[in-house]
């Protein structure tokens, strides 16, 4: 099984520092938007793909979920998730964790999930259509899928300058070179190489439709609607960093 980049000590340490920052993309943009899309979780079973340190799983249990299941490739993430969840809930009865890539979702014991979520992770998946089929197979009829991922106008980047700047070095436009060229992207964060995958908006929505999901809501949070972000996230006036989709499985 491939090793998670998050199990690289420096990568995990830097990630933790970012997550502890109260003014971060995760805290200010991702979590509030993701949680606003949730249905009533009372008595529901929930699967979180790419669950990380279990923050979302704990939130789902606090909202009344009967049981939550988390799947992540990182052993370090899951160790922290178990430590956090075990302080309030019983492992096995209230939560289960699996160290697996999303591509091996079919191997987990549980099924018939009412809600499946994934935060900031689907851009790591090469075969989105197959993943959607595997998710559907694990869901109840009319189950809800909610996910966020890097927005396609972000994942399209291959090379060159991301931003066009004026004479004062201010960001004035985000370049969309290579948007139509789908496929693998080589990335680096804290000098650690990893891969993501670019799909156009049309491909994402068409593959959801082909997998028999009805698209219920789409969100693209940007600066114009959130003035409180102005000082910290100035570049959000030009483009949304994340795409959020809420979809319902058809019978």
From TrEMBL:
GO terms of molecular function: methyltransferase activity
GO BP: methylation
Residue intervals of the Methyltransferase type domain: 47-146
SUPFAM superfamilies with a match to the protein in the record: S-adenosyl-L-methionine-dependent methyltransferases
Superkingdom to which the source organism belongs: Bacteria
Keyword field: Methyltransferase, Transferase
A Pfam family recorded for this sequence: Methyltransf_11
Gene3D superfamilies reported for this sequence: Vaccinia Virus protein VP39 (3.40.50.150)
CDD domains xrefs: AdoMet_MTases
Name the UniProt record assigns to this protein: Class I SAM-dependent methyltransferase
């Amino acid at each position: 099984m491939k090793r998670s980049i998050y199990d690289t000590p420096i990568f995990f340490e830097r990630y933790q520092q970012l997550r502890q920052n109260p003014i971060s993309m995760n805290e200010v943009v991702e979590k509030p938007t993701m949680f606003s899309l949730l249905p009533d979780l009372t008595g529901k079973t929930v699967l979180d793909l790419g669950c990380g340190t279990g923050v979302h799983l704990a939130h789902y249990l606090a909202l009344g979920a009967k049981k939550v299941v988390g799947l992540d490739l990182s052993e370090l993430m899951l160790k922290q998730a178990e430590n956090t969840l075990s302080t309030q809930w019983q492992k096995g009865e209230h939560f289960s964790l699996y160290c697996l890539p999303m591509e091996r979702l079919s191997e987990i014991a549980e099924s018939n999930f009412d809600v499946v979520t994934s935060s900031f992770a689907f851009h790591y998946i090469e075969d989105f259509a197959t993943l959607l089929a595997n998710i559907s197979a694990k869901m109840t009829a009319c189950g809800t899928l909610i996910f966020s991922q890097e927005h396609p106008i972000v994942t399209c980047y291959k090379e060159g300058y991301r931003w066009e700047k004026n004479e004062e070095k201010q960001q004035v436009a985000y370049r969309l070179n290579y948007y139509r060229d789908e496929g693998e992207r080589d990335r680096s964060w804290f000098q650690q190489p990893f891969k993501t995958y670019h799909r156009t908006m049309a491909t994402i929505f068409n593959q959801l439709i082909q997998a028999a999901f009805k698209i219920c809501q789409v969100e693209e949070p940007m600066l114009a609607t959130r003035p409180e972000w102005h000082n910290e996230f100035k570049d959000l006036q030009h483009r949304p960093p994340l795409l959020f989709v809420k979809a319902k499985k058809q019978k």
